[in-house]
Design goal:
Blueprint (H helix, E strand, L loop, with lengths): L1 E2 L5 E5 L4 E6 L5 E6 L9 E2 L5 E6 L2 E6 L4 E6 L4 E5 L5 E7 L5 E7 L6 E2 L9 E5 L5 E7 L4 E7 L5 E4 L18
Antiparallel strand pairs: 1-2, 2-3, 3-4, 5-6, 6-7, 7-8, 9-10, 10-11, 11-12, 13-14, 14-15, 15-16
């Protein structure tokens, strides 16, 4: 389940790969889309908790909850769509012209697409943007294990995170801890 920032709505993919939204405050329930490839989709609510962003069928989808309208951005093979803190731009993973996985920034209007990484290796999986929008973390295939890396989005510098002893480096998340 993916909670909205205002803790009022939950989005989740249920049986038959159908995307649901539940409003905790009024108990309303909506089925808004169906995915072509089962489970494992990342959903992200806008900072104002009004628009749900995700990828489906070679498009970035922006579902406006209050108006029940949809805007789509054509982006083949995009995954891990998520909001930058400014609420007007999105981060996503997609292959570049050579078929190599990269991270991109794009406006919610579908303009000003900018490639943020210069990856030359394997696919960038399970991408997660930091709360301040300055870093992203992801996993990528290593020689015999999955590696966890972070990238500073302004510079493209990458940093490897030491994984556990069993090399089960799946599903990394940023800490919510604030000091």
């Amino acid at each position: 389940p993916f909670w909205s920032a205002d803790n009022v709505k939950i989005a989740f993919v249920g049986r038959n790969a159908i995307l649901h939204i539940v409003n905790i405050r009024d108990g309303s329930f909506a089925r808004i889309d169906q995915f072509s490839e089962g489970y494992g989709h990342y959903l992200d609510w806008s900072p104002n908790s009004q628009i749900l962003a995700y990828s489906n069928r070679n498009e970035i989808v922006l579902y406006d909850y209050p108006t029940h309208t949809v805007r789509k951005i054509n982006q083949p093979n995009a995954t891990d769509v998520q909001w930058f803190p400014n609420g007007t731009e999105l981060l996503f993973q997609a292959p570049d012209a050579s078929g190599i996985s990269q991270l991109y920034r794009i406006s919610t209007a579908g303009t000003n697409k900018v490639q943020l990484t210069q990856n030359t290796g394997g696919r960038l999986n399970y991408v997660r943007l930091s709360d301040d929008g300055k870093f992203a973390l992801y996993t990528t295939p290593g020689a015999s294990v999955s590696l966890i890396l972070t990238v500073e989005l302004a510079t493209g510098r990458t940093f490897e995170i030491q994984g556990g002893p069993l090399a089960k480096n799946y599903f990394p998340e940023w800490s919510n801890h604030q000091e």
